[in-house]
Amino acid sequence: MARQSATAGDWRKGIMNASLLALAFREWSRRPIRAALAAAGVALATFALMSVVAFLRGYQRGMKNSLDGLGAHILLVPKGCPFDAASIALHGANWPCYLRTEHVAEIVAVPVIDQAAPALMTAIPMASGLDQVLLGITDDMLRLRPAWRIEGHFPREPDEILVGAGAAMRRGWKPGDRVQLGRLAIPPRRVAGVIAPGGTSEDGFVFLPLAEAQRVFRRERQLTHVLVRLRHPDQLDDAVTRLRGCNAGMEMNVVPLTHLFHTIQQLLHSTQVWLACVACVAVLAAVSGVGNAMLMSIGERMRELGILRAVGASRGQVFLLVWLETLQVSLVGALAGGAAAVLSAGWTEGWLRARLPMAPAETMVRPEAWWITACVVFAVGVATLAGLLPAWRAAALPPAIAMRVAKGR
Fold first, then answer.
1. Same domain, 246 and 331
2. Residue 253's beta-bridge partner residues?
3. Pairing of strands 189-195, 160-163
4. For residues 89 and 277, which has the higher predicted lDDT (pLDDT)?
5. Which whole-number Å values give the CA distances from 216 to 163, 189, 207, in the listed order?
6. Which range, of 285-299, 326-340, 349-363, averages the lowest pLDDT?
7. What range does the domain containing 219 cover?
8. Is residue 144 assigned to a domain?
9. Looking at the structure, do residues 269 and 246 belong to the same domain, yes or no?
10. 203: buried, middle or exposed (CB in 10 Å: 19+, 13-18, 0-12)?
């Protein structure tokens, strides 16, 4: 008999829990406007939080890949703002001032330097209206780019060019084609080779022999920058001191790329703190909005909650009912915010890229599988925080008092 009674009690408890679950899912359909507003707050917080985290991860990854792709330890640029020059070297643009070709001999003479690759960069308008970055280089660049995989060969003749994978795909060029470089009044060039995708801004560059680029752009004996690789990374401080102390050091900025990356990380950390504050405000607003909606719902349903207690619902079951209602609206809002973050990733990246001084070429705000998991975890967290007080108040209310207060209204 005792076993049968326990079995019957468990069965009734299961029925009650199933009824509470159904009641929780039906409750928010009775007050759709309030539920929609509470869910919208969670969606906005989720959108802000996920976009911020994805941007910070993508920006740091993109800048690291861009610097790693240079294959150099030091960047030598003309006098001026070194960070503006570094941004131009990484992503491509027209330069305001130049180094002299004679500097290369002095640079190579420094004992700790292994390789020095001079370059002349410029950007020209194309028929599509977009600028095409052109980079004049020598075969010294191949020694700094051992990861390059070229379909074809490095330019051997003045009229040959080497094309990055992105530029080749965008223009429809392939090895052997004769192509016209924008609006330059020069004969067509033959595509000697196409570089396999590397995930850096160089995927969009077109490379010419350095001497030919200097002739075409009327920059004889001029360079925009020099990439330097050391014999050993530990010699960086010695190399910087020697380069700044040579005759050419009076006309150029010596930018250690590791220091540049650390500076970018510091700037990114400051941005991270600011964006984290914005995301925290959004999260607090979502928690407070959902909690307030639940408190209002409990105030309107005192008689209903009292009846539930009177027919046998325990405090824990009432607590579970309110928490399930909170979880429902939080989960809907979080999934909606996550979907909005994924669908608007391109727009978010475009907006951020237009306002960043040093934006990597690769995608920064990239939808990833962890976004869905983050949505669910965030929803559970918001539901737990926002639903604790309302659920506790509902569970602590005696049934007789709840029914008497509701009747008195």
1. no
2. 77
3. parallel
4. 277
5. 17, 12, 13
6. 349-363
7. 80-250
8. yes
9. no
10. buried
